[in-house]
Protein 1
Amino acid sequence: MARNTRPPRQRRPAGARSARTSVGDRLTAWRQHHRDSLRDALGRMARAPTAALMTVLVIAIALALPAGLAVLMDNARAITKGWDGQAHLSVFLKLDTAEERQRALAREWDGFDTVARTEVITRGQALEEFKSLSGFGDVLEALPDNPLPPLIVVYPKDVAPGQVEALQRRLDNLPEVDNAQLDVAWVRRLHAIIELGDRMISVLTLGLALAVVLVVVNTVRLAIESRREEIVVIKIVGGTDGFVRRPFLYSGFCVGFAGGVLALILISVALWWLGGPIDELLRLYESEHSLTGMNPSTVLVLPLFSGTLGLLGAWLAVSRHLGDIEPQF
C-alpha cells in the first residue's frame, strides 16, 4: 500500500479582527484628549512667551477700552442719579388765590400718582425771600401791595422729560393756576448724554470684539501653517478633523481668556490712577460720591466673554484652513 506523501495542509493565517471599544473607553479617551489639548495649548504659550504675550496684550487693550468706559459711565450714572430729584415745577397761582386755598391745592396735588411731594410758598414768604436775595428791600417796602403771586413747588416722582411735561400740562389747565414753569432742558441733556454714551460703548464693544476675533483667527492660522506636517501625519494614521481641531480651539480659548484677565488688570490700574483726581473733583463739587471699581459681574463675565471670542476665532480659522491640509499619495 502506497504511502500518502502529500504534505500536511498549512493553516492559513487568521485575518485582522476589529476590536470593539466600549462607550466608557471612548469617553475616557475623549476626556484624556481634552486634557492633553489644554496642556498642549498652555505649553505652547509657555514655550513662546513673547509671541503669546503680544497677542494677549492686543486682546487686553481691545477689551479694556470699552469695559473701562462702561465702568466710568456707571459711575457717572450713579453720581447724576440724585440730580434728577432736583427737577421740579414752579406753579404760580393767581393773585387772588387765598392762602387756605393754596394749601388745600398742595394737599390735593400730593395725592397725584405722579407727584412725590409739594412745597407751599405763600406771598409773604416769597416777598421776604426776594428781599433778602435781591437787596431791594427798601424799594419793595415802598410798594402799596405785594406783587408776588402764591407759589407751589411740585416735585414729580418720575423725572423723565415726557412724564414731567405731562404733569406740567395737567397742572397748567387747572383754573387756579396762572402759570406752571419747568426748566427741563438740563434734564433732557443729561438723559441724552447718558444714552449717547451707552450707545457709543455698545458700538465700540462690537467693533473691538470683531477685532479680537480677527486677531485670534490670524494667530491660529499661523499656528496651523507651522504644524502642517504634523497635521498631515495625524490624518495619515487616521486622525479625524475633530481630533486635529481640538488643540487649536483650546489655544484660541486660552489666548482669549488670558486677554480678558489682563484687561481686568489694566482697568484696575487705570481706575487706581484716575481715582485720586476724580475724587478730588467730586469733593470740590461737594459730592458724597467717589469713584467705584468694577462690579463682580464684570470681573466674572469679561474673561469668559474674551475666551468665547478666542474660541470663535479659532473655530473660524480651523474651519477655513484645516480642510486645505490633506495627505498627498
Protein 2
Amino acid sequence: MSADFKLEGMDDFMRNLDALKDRKSVNRKAKSAARKAMQLVQMAAMVGAARINDPETKESIQQNIAIRSGKSRDLNTVVMRVGVLGGAKNYANTKDNVRKGRAGKEYATDGSSKNPGGDTFYWRYIEFGTSRFPAVPFMRPALSENIERVTAEFNKHFMKSIETAIKKGKIT
C-alpha cells in the first residue's frame, strides 16, 4: 500500500532548486527532511499498533515499525516508506520469474524472529482484515490523518537545511 501526494504552490521554490548545481546535496537534504517528517507517521503507527497489540505474547508490532528509504528512477523524487519489518517481498526480475509471470509481484514472508519485535507476520491480517476478521487499520490512518503535519514538517526541515547550506556557500 502506498500513498502519493503532491505539494502545490511551490513553483518558485522548485525553479530555484532546479537552478542549483549540486543535485546530490539537495537530494541528501530532501531525504533527511523526508525521514524527519515520516517520523510523525511512524509514531502514529506505533501508537495505533500499541492499542491492538496483545501484551500476553512476546511479539510486538510497534517495535517492528520502521522507516526505510526507497528508490526512484527520477532524480527529483524522494521516496520514504514506513512499514512493518518482515513484510512482503518482491519477486526479482529474473528470467525465470519473468517467464512464470511473477516478476514485480509481491509474496508474503513469514517474517523473522530476529526482528526487534519478533515475528509479526500477522500484522497485515489485522491491517487489512480477512474473510473472518474485520480490518482494524493502524498503518493507513497513521499517514492519512497526518498528511498536513508531515508536509509542514518536511517543508520546515528542508527549507532550513537549504537556507543553511546557501548561507554557508555550499550550494551555488
Protein 3
Amino acid sequence: MDAQNVISSETRSSYDRIYEIKAFDEGKLGVKGLIDAGIQKIPSMFVRPLEDRVKDFDTCSENISVPIINFADLGEKNDRIAEISKEIIMASNEWGFFQVINHGIPNELLEKMIKRTQMFHEQDAESKKKFYTRDFHSKSVYFTSNHDLYKSKAASWKDILYINARNTDGEIDHEELPPVCKDVILEYIDRILMLGDRILMIISFGLGLEPDCLGNMAKGTKSWAIANNYYPACPQPGLTLGTAAHVDTSFITILLQDNIGGLQVLHDNKWVNIEPVTGGLIVNFGSILQMITNDIIKGACHRVIAKSVGPRISIAFFFSGVMTSEKIHGPIKELISKEKTPIYRKFSIEEVMKNLFSNSLDVVGANLDYFKIHHMGDDK
C-alpha cells in the first residue's frame, strides 16, 4: 500500500489504528512519503491523545539552556581535566545534558554528515525502500520510521537510517552502508568514537575512578549505534511530536543537530529548548550510566517537537555497551558506601536493550524502576 492509502484511512467511520499503521508500514516510505503524497493534515496514527497534550508540561520562556563546555586546550593536563570533569558532573546533576565545543571534530565533517543524511532520506523512493525493515535484529543497517510503531500511543513524526553495531562487536560491513553517505559515515564514526572515549575518561576521572573504567564498561569501539534522523516539516505540529519524551538507553549519547532545532530537555517541570550552537555537539547521559553510578550521574528526559519548517536533521550516536556480552553490571563498587547503598540491581546490557525494544519509547525512561532493588523485593 502507498502513502495515499494511509491518508484515505482517516475517512473511515471508525478509526482503525492497526489498519492505518500497517498501510504506513507496508508503504516503506516513512513520514517523508506522506509529505510527498501531498497531505494537508497528519494521519490519526500520529495524533497524540488529547489527555497527553492537555497534561503536557509548558515550554520554558526564559532564556536559559544547557551548559556549554569548552574542550579547548584539554590535552593531558590533569588540572584542565579536573576542571572540565567538575563542569560535566555539575551539568549531569542539573540538566543531564551539556553541549561541547572545540571537541576536535572539524565543522566541515559535521556539515557533510548532516548533508549526506539528508541526501539519503531525499533520494528516490526505490533506492530507499531497499533499506526498509522492521526486523531490527537481522540487519546492521536499515531504514525505518518509529522503532515502537506498533506499541506507542502515537507515532512520532520522523524517519531513521539506523546503523547498529551492538551485536557485531563494533564491526559493520561497509558494503551495507548506503552509497550516498558511506564515506562520510565511516569518517564520522572514527572521530566520534575518539570523542566518546575522551568524555567517558573525563567522567571517570571526576568520579574518582580509574581513567579507563567507564570506557571499558561502555566498550565504545565494540558497541555503538547511530540514528540518522529526518524530521519533515509537519502540517499540524501541535498535534504530534518528532520524538516522544524518553531517557536514552545508553552510557552516553552524542548528538549532532542542524540549525533548525526542536530538541527539548525537561528541567524543573518545564521543557527547555536546546538551541543549536555552531560547531557544537550535544552530550546527554543515559540510563545505563545512571544505574552504574548509583544515581550520581543522571539521565534526563528529552523529546523533539514537530515543526512547520524543515526538514530537521540530527545524528545521534549511542554508546551502549556490548549487548552479546555475558558481563553483568551493577552500581560500581567504588561508588557504594554505608551511606550510599545500591539503588539498582545487577543487569546485563542485553536485558536493558530487550527492555528498550519491547516497550514504547515513552515507557523506557520510566522503566528505571524495573531495575531498582525494591522492585525485586530485595532489601539487601
Protein 4
Amino acid sequence: MRWIKNVMALLGLFFVASIFVNAFQDAPTDENFEKKLVNDYNVYALQVPEYLEFSGEPVPLNNPDIYERIDRELLVNTYWQSNGLLMFKRAKKYFPVIEPILAKHGVPDDFKYLAVIESGLTNAVSPAGARGFWQIMKTTGREYGLEINDNVDERYNLEMATEVACEYLKKSKERFGSWTLAAAAYNAGNYGVSKELERQNVSDYYDLLLGQETGRYVFRILALKEILSHPDKYGFNFRDKDLYKNVPTYKVGVDTAVTDFTAFSEKFGINYKILKIHNPWLREKHLNNKSRKQYFIDIPKEGVYLK
C-alpha cells in the first residue's frame, strides 16, 4: 500500500503546484498590469474636422498654422476629461438662460461658448478683477449700466451680465465687421485688436500674430463648440439625467431696504444659503437700497429644496 500513498502524495504535490502556477499567471505582475493598461486606456490623435466655422465665418483649416492651433485646443480640451464633463453638465443648466438673450440681441448662438472659456460657466473671479460668467471688468460693467459696489454687484447676475456682453459684442462687430474679431476683442479689448490690425496691416483674425492668451482665444472657443456639439465623437459618455438641471424660480420685486436676508429667506421657505446661490449679485447680508431702486430677487419654486 506504500506505493499507493506515494502516488497520492505526488498527485497532491502536482495539484498544489498547478494552483500555484495558475495563480501566478493571473497575479498583477508588472507585465500583466501594463498589458491591461494598454488595453483599457488609449489616447488617440484626433481628426480635425474638414470644416469649422464661428458665427458663420469659416476657419481657414488649409492653413497649416491654423490647423495645428485648432488641433492643439481639441486635444487639450478632449483629454481634460473631468473639466469636459463639467462643461456638459453646466451647459445643460445655463445655456437655456444664455441662448434666448443672445437671440434677442441678434448675437450668434456660438457666443455661448465664449462664456464657457471665460469662466467655465461659473461666477469666476480673475486676478485682474473681472467677475461672473462673462468676466466683466468693473469699468465696463458700469459703462453699460450695471450696479457694482460692495452691497450689490450685478456682474454676478447671469441675465444682466449676458445683456451687457451682447451690447459689447455688437459694438465690436460694428467696429470690425467680423464676429470672429469681435470675439477676440472681448479678450484683448477693441483698442488692442485695432492697434494690432493696423500695425500688422491685416484685416483678419487668422492673419494676426497675437500674444499667447488672445492668440489661443478663438481656437479655444472653436474647440469647445466642436466638443460640446459632438460628445460621442470625442469620447464623452453620459445620460441626460447625469447633467445639471436649471432650478425653476420666480422673481420677487423689492424696492426698499432689506435689513436681514436670513429673515427674508425664511418668509419664502428657504434659507440664506439657497437665497445666495440663486442671487449671487447680493454681496452682503442686507440690501441698502437708499435710492429705492426696483430689484428682482430669484426665489426657488416651492418644494425644490425639500429634504
